[in-house]
Amino acid sequence: MRIATVLSTLTAVALSVGAGSLQAQSGSIQATATVLTAITVTGTNPLAFGNVTPGVNKTIAITDATAGLFSVVKQAATSVALTFTLPANLTSGANNMPIGTWTGGWNNTANTPVGATSFTPSAAATTVPSGGANLWVFVGGTVAPAAAQAAGAYVGTVTMQVAYL
Questions:
Q1: Global pTM value
Q2: What is the distance between the terminal CA atoms of the chain, rounded to a whole angstrom?
Q3: N or C: which end of the chain has fewer CB atoms below 10 A?
Q4: pLDDT tens-digit readout, 9-20
């Protein structure tokens, strides 16, 4: 019995030594997040076609003084996507005047259309690469009044949404 007791004791010691060398290991990481500045979009200047002659298309380029202008304040060094909701027509009561084309340009270095990057405003997103905290978006277009277009003040709403990428 004495041999059995010695073997039992040696086995217990061996198991206890082995268990001590199998200690768990651990590591850690940090969880981080950066909260970006809220985006502010302001309609600064309306797209104003002014007086329009029936039957004669009128175009406002993004470089014209009456081009539409949005100003955006965002987090510097971040990219954004621009999407638009555009009217197909300007309306005056029950009368419609189609807008045939849309033009756009964005500038993230100065509030000027000179040197702006051209794009076509649409519901499909336009990506603006990272730049400063300010962004200016210029909008132009062409109205196409019919030869018998009813007289009146025609309006429509251009909406631009800006989101971080």
A1: 0.83
A2: 78
A3: N
A4: 545 544 555 555
